[in-house]
Amino acid sequence: MIDFSILFEHGDMFLEGFWNTVQASLLALVGSFALGTIFAIFRISPIRPLNWIGTAYVEFVRNIPLILVVFLFFVGLPALGIVLSPFVAGTLGLTVYTAAFIAETIRAGIQAIPKGQMEAARSSGLTYNQAMRYIILPQAIKVVIPPMGNQFINLVKNSSVLGVIAGLDLMYFGDLISAETFVTFDVYIFVACFYLILTLPLSLLVGHLERRLAGSR
Amino acid sequence: MISFHQVNKHYGNFHVLKNIDLHINQGEVVVVIGPSGSGKSTMVRCINRLETVTSGELLVDGVKVNDKNTDINKLRRNIGMVFQHFNLYPHKTVLENITLAPIKVLGVSQKEAEETALYYLEKVGIPDKVDKFPTQLSGGQQQRVAIARGLAMRPKIMLFDEPTSALDPETIGEVLDVMKKLAKEGMTMVVVTHEMGFAREVADRIVFMDQGRILEEATPKEFFENPREERARLFLSRILNH
Predict the structure, then answer these.
(1) ipTM, two decimals
(2) Which topology term describes how it sits in the membrane (chain A) (predicted)?
(3) Cα separation of B64 and B71, whole Å?
(4) Whose CB among A109, A110, B92, B234 lies 3.0–4.6 Å from A144's, allowing a Cys bridge?
(5) Domain limits of chain A?
(6) Contact, A211 vs A31, CB < 8 A?
(7) A116 with B83: Cβ contact below 8 A
(8) What pTM does this model have?
(9) What contacts A49, CB < 8 A, 6 or more positions away?
(10) A121 vs B contacts (CB less than 8 Å)
């Protein structure tokens, strides 16, 4: 049977890890959304050099394992004299990594809007930026919300990479508790449950939004 | 009002428009016909720079369309455009579709823009649809909203790019009626269409294109009764006798 006493005896550690996972996820969520939007706009911009920057970013970051991106911040930056705490380095790595996927999601959403929408808007005298703001983005957001939700679920799960660099997250404390108590299976079951507390509601929310948005438009 | 001087356009190796010379006067209704792929739509889309020309000069209302110093957004205010697939904004109501550009581009007040919108909706015969979304309308109704949207900017020129090609046959008439009314009121119109009845009745001039060239320019009477060009004769015989 599963030993629940571990949950109570090490409750403070579980909670600290959980809380740090929530923080890392939220920070990376906001950061990767902002960064991803910028790179998505770069990728579809009519200005060529911006295209190249956007494409380079997405292709490099997306095709490197997450843990290497995190290592870049954790061991790469100190080599340049910038030392970050494991938590900050891990969250930054997570942000940069997720932003590449968010950028692709947003770009795909914008490009899913028929070309005629931009043409109609521009031919009525709206500027490119106005057309984006009033016509393209409001429609793209509906297309983008469900896949974006999935990216955020991945983000929460991927935050467990912080455990590898002592980022004080749920995974890290899970490892610590199991090493202290020599109980492995039960501890990781609890860790999994804590992740589910975060990801299941997100998943249900995504499903709900998917159904609602399928109705409109 | 609109002058093409030796305009050429290439898409890569494909020569879409070849030495186009065309002059359209204020108040004139010019109907462009020809087989598909002949460059009709491309030519019309050059007028508001939805397509750029490769060489030659294009003047609209005295302004060089392809000049670097031309404020294209300013020029476009004077040119309404109606598309084959309507291109209404699906996330906005009929009223919002029509008032958006007047408010954001011309800077008129919401109230004034709505009054103008209602005036033109009345004119195209669907004032009762103000609060509907485009998907709730038939094709013919959507296209009439698109015309009202163009007119609400009070343009000097209206461009129509196959406005009835995506409509089911029963609703084509209602759109053509609106266009006829507009022509009678003296709007400068350039219309790409396959509706020969409309061309014959409403056009001041027919422009016949094939393979990127203007082959013939004539009044509807001349063109339909006695086309000069062999290619035009073939085209007419194919679409009229079937």
Answers:
(1) 0.93
(2) Multi-pass membrane protein
(3) 10
(4) A109
(5) 5-216
(6) no
(7) yes
(8) 0.83
(9) none
(10) 89
CA distances from A130 to A79, A116, B64, B78 (A): 44, 15, 24, 18
pLDDT digits (tens, 9 = 90+) for B47-99: 999 999 999 999 999 999 999 899 999 999 999 999 999 999 999 999 999 99
Report H helices in B102-167. Answer: 110-123, 139-151
- A140, two tokens: 């793209």
Asked if the C-beta of A130 comes within 8 angstroms of chain B's C-beta atoms, the answer is yes
Rg (CA), chain B: 18
Residues of B in contact with A122 (CB under 8 A): 50, 76
pLDDT at A145 over 90: no
For the A5-216 domain, the top CATH level (class) is mainly alpha
Instruction: Give the angle subtended at the CA of A108 by the CAs of A102 and A111, to the nearest 5°.
Output: 140
CA-closest candidate to residue B153, choices B222, B88, B101: B101
Helix (H) or strand (E) holding A98: helix A86-111
Side-chain half-sphere CA neighbours of A102 within 13 A:
25
How many angstroms separate the CA atoms of A177 and A171, rounded? Answer: 10
**Region class of A156: left (phi > 0), else alpha (psi between -120 and 50), else beta:** alpha
CB atoms within 10 A of CB A51: 14
The token pair at B110 is 């919401």
Distance CA B116, CA B52 (A): 32
- For the stretch B157-216, pLDDT in tens is 999 999 999 999 989 999 999 999 999 999 999 999 999 999 999 999 999 999 999 999
Measured torsion, CA atoms of residues B147, B197, B239, B193, in degrees rounded to the nearest 10: -20
Which amino acid is it at B190? V
**Start-to-end Cα distance in chain B:** 37
Interface of B with A (CB under 8 A): 48, 50, 73-74, 76-77, 79-81, 83, 85, 87-91, 100-101, 104-106, 135, 146, 149-150, 153
Residues of chain A contacting B89 with CB distance shorter than 8 Å: 117, 120-121, 135, 139
* Structure tokens given for B231: 């290619």
